[in-house]
Amino acid sequence: MQFVEANGAKIPAIGLGTWELRGRPCARLVEQALKLGYRHVDTAQVYENEREVGEGLRASKIRRDDVFVTTKVWTTHFAPNDLERSAKESLTRLRLSEVDLLLLHWPNPHVPLAETLGGLARVKKLGLTRHIGVSNFTVALIDEAVAACPEPLICDQVEYHPYLDQTRVREVCARHGMAVVAYSPVAKGRIKSDETLTRIGKAHGKTPAQVCLRWLVQQGVSAIPRTSKIERLSENIDIFDFALSEEEMRQIFALGSAAGRLTDFGFAPKWD
Questions:
Q1: What domains can be seen in the chain, in order of their start residue?
Q2: Is residue 203 scored above 90 in pLDDT?
């Protein structure tokens, strides 16, 4: 497994996203992923599956220290005392003494960012998480967060796939020594019939999804594809035995635009 290094953290380059996975199937998928070689699992309070993610982790019998576990605090818990209580509740559900990474799930303009980041830094100082970061933050918000946070932020987790140009977010993260973690890295399956990705995949004996994930990893991005299919798990991690040429990378970059976003809510920030 390759790693993405950022402000003292080593994030496995491929992880398992668990959004919309629930109950027994979620626990079984996490267990299976870890047995197949995944070492990075991403969950969130609002997914309502932290308990099952913890069960899958224990059932896998993989040493806790070998797995990078991320969870996220929902926006209604951004007041500092709330944030600390919320982080403790996540640990109780996961049955862990700490997570590897705790993220602010979305920006919340109703609570001063400096206050929330002070609370997040305190949670780290208390030993409830090894690292802290943000998710769905824009360039301006990342700059503001880095300036206001007493502890280093290690990543911005954002939607990123070939159809969405995230050049500006990648540049601001690089400037601050932060990683980009990509959710929806295969564009919710829309890449399956893409001609460019199919053609490049044929040249390497790989699927469009594998080409997609390889494109992200070659940029130094960590990707967390979500799947509910066990057979897809092995496909998504089997991307470390080939490399895309500069020309292939360029062709995939050319598919991106600002209009390619798939995840957008009424409470989302004004995107770059």
A1: 3-189+219-227 (3.20.20.100)
A2: yes
